Amino acid sequence: MAESLPDATAEFARAVGPEPDDVIREMDAQADTDGFPTVGPEVGGWLQMLARMVSARRVFEFGSGFGYSAYWFARALPEDGEIVLTEVDEDELDQAREYMARGGFDDLASYELGDAIETVDAYDGPFDAVLIDNEKHRYREAFEAVRPKIAEGGVVIADNAVTAGPIDFEALSALVRGEDPDEVNDHTAGVAEYLDRVGADPAFETALIPLGEGIAVSHRVD
Ligand SMILES: C[S@@+](CC[C@H](N)C(=O)[O-])C[C@H]1O[C@@H](n2cnc3c(N)ncnc32)[C@H](O)[C@@H]1O
Questions:
Q1: Which of 73, 115, 133, 191 to mutate to test the pocket of ligand 1 (most atoms within 8 A of CB)?
Q2: N or C: which terminal CB in the chain sees fewer CB atoms within 10 Å?
């Protein structure tokens, strides 16, 4: 089977940019050592770019880990911007706090321990950029919860739109093309269900960026 996301392309994308800073390099090293699945620098660069392209002021993340994706977003936010980090693991969230502070982003950030899908209910919109990176079988639920709070002109980015440890790319690809594969695990079905939901939503236009583990980018057009 052809590689779905070739390493050579990833390496090239990293060389093109945007450039990480020393804190990001340290986070990358930690992710390597711990085997932690951050979005990686190719997607991080796109998070920063997308936030800038929609002039984002407010960002919400479903699943922030130790703050890697949030840090890239924060680099594009204005001084009076806001980013909400959510995480079920207290230790990860504490590390996120430290990394964000080191980047000078602590004043922009709110740190919420617990289920992101419950947390989002406590926030008023609008959000200009949203990252969906929680449990794959709950992507659709995350989208439904945040959908009314997404600004017109805003953007929703779902990670793992192509791959992740448990995602079966052949089954995912078949589902997205309307076929009926024999065996589909919950993670794969969750991503396919999300892509189907957001893809059919007339208020959004969706396109795929095949970097990192693949991101589906959905732009709110009305
Ligand atoms: C794949 S990691 C990525 C984290 C981060 N976005 C990054 O790029 O480094 C996903 C994280 O989401 C957290 N998570 C999963 N389900 C969650 C939920 N329902 N609410 C909050 N955090 C969740 C996990 O504990 C994990 O740290």
A1: 133
A2: N
What DSSP assignment string belongs to 21-33? -HHHHHHHHHHHH
Q: Which domains does the chain have, with CATH numbers?
A: 7-220 (3.40.50.150)
**Residue ID of nearest Cα to ligand 1 atom 19:** 115
Both structure tokens of 190: 């969750």
Mean pLDDT by 10 residues, the chain (222 residues): 74 92 98 96 96 98 98 98 98 98 97 98 97 96 98 97 87 93 92 96 97 95 92
Nearest CA to ligand 1 atom 11: 63
As a whole number of angstroms, the distance between CA 205 and CA 222 comes to 10
Token output for 202: 């007339």
Q: Is 165 exposed, middle or buried (0-12, 13-18, 19+ CB in 10 A)?
A: exposed
